[in-house]
Amino acid sequence: MNGGRTFNLLQQWRIPPGQSLSGRRERLGYQILKGHFFPVKVWNCCSFRCCQELQSNVGDVVENSSAFGSDIALKIGTPGKPAQNHKSLGAFQMLPIVMPSIDILASAKRKARNVPPTRGIANLAKRERNKGAKQLDALMKELAVPLRQYTENFPNKQYLHPYERSLIELTLGDGNYEEVLRRVDSLRKKIVSIGKQQASLCAQSMSKREAEERLNEGLKKIEEVFHIGSNAVEDLLHVAKTLRAMPVVDLEKPTLCLVGAPNVGKSSLVRILSTGKPEVCNYPFTTRGILMGHIVLNYERFQVTDTPGLLMRHDEDRNNLERLTLAVLSHLPTAVLYVHDLSGECGTSPDDQFTTYKEMKERFSNHLWLDVVSKCDLLQVSPASNLQDDMEKYKSFGPEGAIRVSVKSEFGLPELKERVHGMLISQMAKIRNETNSKES
Ligand SMILES: Nc1nc2c(ncn2[C@@H]2O[C@H](COP(=O)(O)OP(=O)(O)OP(=O)(O)O)[C@@H](O)[C@H]2O)c(=O)[nH]1
Ligand SMILES: [Mg+2]
């Protein structure tokens, strides 16, 4: 093991709060996304392009609505269409498919070009200006309607389950979800405004030629406005992709959550215990998102989540990775498998691990809980147990009742699996009891 390197990396992570995560994340982002992790990034408010590393449903034109009619109401932040209630998960899987702006534009232009003049107009100038106004109106609607559908059908954050709300804030950055939707809506308003203006101008043309010129000019102007604001659509597309890629959690199914300091061997245990195959590396914060694996036991399917490591620090100093872990513990009914590394290899001292452990145990005392001391192949044979001090006991044995295991030598793994299965069965009974008492 490379203890020195681990220590240096850990020191890098003891950076002041709020500072952006290091370049390693940039390097890891793609792999993590492929491995079903969702990467975490505090987005720069004005540029969502940088979020590409993170991990069509264009509606029909409203036939009867006139381009000169009333504006389309903004539904963001209004209780117009709650995606679901606070108690269920799954909103990210129901997000509308966002079309790339280039496709929206191409489709709108094609449809607008095919709009004919109203039948029976004999006068050439009248017919041309009627056609021009109708085509400009059509282009405006074809662009505005999908944008309106996006702003209406992306759920209002306040209606989401608190876990999903936390995911939005921690992965996209606080306020950025709403900001992108606001920009999309602002683009829609600009399109409606320029569309009305150009169609009205065309409708006032005095000659066939003038109507043709105004039509071409109007189409160009609408396209220009759309083009200038189109990055809002691209950003919304990335928001949708990022949120849709997040692991799906079933609240009715028992879930085991692995928690502990960075680099203590959580992901190695997830690989042993479940179908999850998170990345394992000898540096802290290898795991940069929530990964779901499964355990099938007696035909029952259980969920396992790997989480980013927790350092000993105050909540306000925690990075977004640590906050994700806390969001899982706070909002999902999980059983905890807390991993302790007393080998001195992980980069967090046993003293610091003990402090964080005590805090978490107290804070999440309502969770079923199992302690495991990892990497026991690296531990000395236990000294005599006449130790009085809690900390000294912890350094030698871990918390009371902890199981000693080693992924390398496979020591303790059968016992761990048995205890984990037992805990998940208890978790299932707990969930059923809670559901029954809510129903009665
Ligand atoms: N000797 C030994 N090394 C282990 C054992 N379990 C894990 N390791 C090593 O410890 C290092 C960290 O393991 P991970 O499973 O990535 O640890 P983690 O807690 O998920 O780390 P983060 O995701 O960074 O928080 C890797 O180099 C593993 O090979 C073990 O039982 N014995
Ligand atoms: Mg990990």
Automatic annotation (TrEMBL):
Entry keywords, A to Z: GTP-binding, Nucleotide-binding
NOG1 N-terminal helical domain residues: 92-250
Domain of life where this protein originates: Eukaryota
InterPro entries membership: G_FEOB_dom (IPR030389), GTP-bd (IPR006073), NOG1_N (IPR041623), NOG1_Rossman_fold_dom (IPR010674), P-loop_NTPase (IPR027417)
Pfam families per record: FeoB_N, NOG1, NOG1_N
Location of the Nucleolar GTP-binding protein 1 Rossman-fold domain: 321-377
FeoB-type G domain residues: 255-312
Gene Ontology MF term list: GTP binding
Protein name in the entry: Nucleolar GTP-binding protein 1 isoform X1
Organism: Dioscorea cayennensis subsp. rotundata (White Guinea yam)
Lineage per the UniProt record: Eukaryota, Viridiplantae, Streptophyta, Embryophyta, Tracheophyta
Gene name of this polypeptide: LOC120261279
